[in-house]
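Researcher: We plan to redesign the surface later, but first we want a full-length starting point. Tokens attached.
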């Protein structure tokens, strides 16, 4: 049974920082591409950042230079360091893992106040 458990969301003022964590189990983590997506109210879910099994990263243009994705294969975990947060970053953030299938976490709320 695959599980992705996110943590680290919360309320922060604009300009602040948060670090999201996602702990995975039940899948070959080191062989999986993992990433973060977000969904704001009334909007579609969108890609934030991904990191491949070979540690190649991609970012949405809106977060480049502010967010950093990383992974720790020994801990089967993926992280998202978010700096200089803006109100438009407010959303539910979801962890994603792709191996044979596509898996999602339950989401963690990030709220950035102006």
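Model: Full-length starting sequence:
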């Amino acid at each position: 049974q695959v599980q992705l458990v996110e943590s680290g969301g919360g309320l922060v003022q604009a300009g602040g920082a948060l670090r999201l964590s996602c702990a995975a189990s039940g899948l070959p983590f080191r062989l999986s591409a993992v990433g973060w997506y977000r969904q704001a109210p009334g909007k579609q879910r969108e890609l934030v950042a991904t990191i491949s099994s070979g540690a190649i990263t991609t970012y949405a243009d809106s977060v480049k230079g502010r967010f950093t994705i990383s992974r720790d294969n020994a801990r089967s975990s993926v992280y998202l360091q978010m700096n200089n947060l803006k109100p438009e970053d407010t959303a539910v953030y979801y962890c994603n893992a792709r191996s044979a299938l596509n898996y999602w976490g339950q989401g963690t709320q990030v709220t950035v106040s102006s």
